[in-house]
Design a protein that fits this description.
By secondary structure, the protein is mainly beta. Helix content is 6%, strand content 33%.
Length: 410
């Protein structure tokens, strides 16, 4: 598959103001202030509250995170996944067989999520879910598209504002992928932009039947209302048209873990010339039941995407991508200063540039094998670049990222 056929997988939703701007105030006979809103805004608020009631499930416990998030401990059997018509009556599966060759890394550090630093946790039989607020939904382009991506366009289109630095493999059958991803807090210059680093497992054509499974970290002011790096997931089975969503913002992904909140902030993050932190992600297809499982960190199963959600991914993937992506809205007619990764170019190396390391694939025999024939591509190398390599400790790896706007990227 040629480079020009690689597709873009993350598009930013247009943002709305965080509050109603067209309200009017009048004084009645009793000199009380009455706020009047246009009918369509009242209807929008009604739709938002109905949607919130649907996705924010009743909790047995609530935890306040230091970053302002509210984490609800929701009974596992009441999670959003089971609203899906194909999953009603489905019971969460037992943990699958791990890929052969998998070994837990003895990391000298562990990445925690900010909400768990309170010492609070969700009880057994529940899962932690980041509560969605009215303000979250008001930032979205529409209630219907909240938590979803706009339909993709081809990677070879130069007009969509999305820029990448990725490593990828294609032309074979892929049953999973694994990597350790360096976590940073890149500067995002506009609420209309984002910066992310992730793994994509992909199947289907680049038309209406594209299937993807995605996981990584992102900074997205539009989705979360802040600039913290956050653990996220995504899926679609129809090229981002009507199926799929981020995190647990629709029915689909089944969470089995009571310690990880999808969409919650990751802490700590790496610092330039300072401490380096990464998260290990493993996505693989259970050979017995066919579901696609996700593991976060060192041995923590998060949950799975049921096989019934997909068409082409019922069998296997035909492409895997690793890397970074940003949105460039060209503020003021020049390139954005939104950073990718650490905000520094790949050539600066460890402690300065962001990295993916220990890239591996899962083959037909449920065996982890080193990534072979990895190709690297940067859409705009003067703005964000990528350099791959192989060594005994990191296996297949690459450094990637950049500052965006600079003298060579005006």
């Amino acid at each position: 598959m040629s480079c020009c056929l690689i597709v873009t997988y993350i598009l930013l939703l247009c943002l709305l103001p965080s509050s109603f701007s067209s309200s009017a105030s009048l004084h009645n006979d009793t000199d009380e202030t009455v706020t009047l809103r246009p009918q369509h805004e009242i209807q929008k608020l009604k739709l938002i509250r109905e949607h919130l009631q649907k996705i924010n499930k009743p909790a047995v416990k609530t935890i306040q995170s230091p970053d302002g998030d509210t984490i609800d401990c929701v009974p596992t059997h009441h999670q959003p996944a089971f609203d899906h018509p194909l999953l009603q009556g489905h019971k969460p599966m037992d943990p699958p067989e791990m890929p052969k060759g998998y070994s837990q890394e003895n990391e000298s550090h562990e990445n925690f999520q900010l909400w768990s630093l309170t010492g609070e946790s969700c009880p057994e039989g529940t899962i932690p879910i980041r509560r969605t607020t009215e303000q979250d939904m008001l930032r979205a382009s529409s209630v219907r598209r909240f938590g979803r991506k706009i339909r993709r366009v081809r990677r070879d289109s130069s007009s969509n504002g999305h820029e990448h630095a990725v490593g990828y493999v294609s032309g074979s059958q892929y049953y999973g992928a694994k990597a350790s991803i360096n976590v940073w807090t890149p500067r995002v210059s506009s609420q209309y932009e984002f910066s992310l680093s992730q793994i994509w497992v992909i199947a289907g054509s680049f038309a209406d039947d594209l299937n993807t499974i995605e996981a990584g970290w992102q900074v997205s002011p539009e989705l979360y209302g802040d600039t913290n790096p956050r653990f996220f997931t995504y899926w679609t089975s129809d090229a981002y048209q009507a199926t799929g969503c981020y995190n647990l913002l629709c029915s689909g992904f089944i969470q089995t873990n009571n310690r990880i909140a999808i969409g919650a902030a990751i802490s700590p993050a790496s610092s330039y010339k300072g401490g380096q932190f990464d998260i290990s992600l493993l996505i693989w297809k259970d050979p017995k039941h066919g579901h696609w499982w996700l593991q976060f960190g060192s041995g923590t199963l998060v949950g799975y995407w049921p096989i019934s959600l997909f068409t082409h991914l019922m069998e296997h993937g035909n492409m895997v991508q690793f890397g970074g992506e940003i949105v460039n809205t060209r503020p003021g007619g020049s390139h954005t200063s939104t950073q990718m990764g650490s905000g520094h170019f790949a050539g600066e190396g460890f402690g300065k540039a962001s990295y993916f390391r220990n890239l591996e694939m899962v083959d037909w025999d449920n065996t982890l094998i080193p990534t072979s024939n990895l190709r690297v591509l940067a859409d705009h190398p003067n703005c964000y670049d990528i350099r791959g390599g192989v060594n005994r400790v990191w296996g297949n790896y690459f450094y990637y990222g950049g500052p965006g706007k600079n003298s060579k990227c005006p």
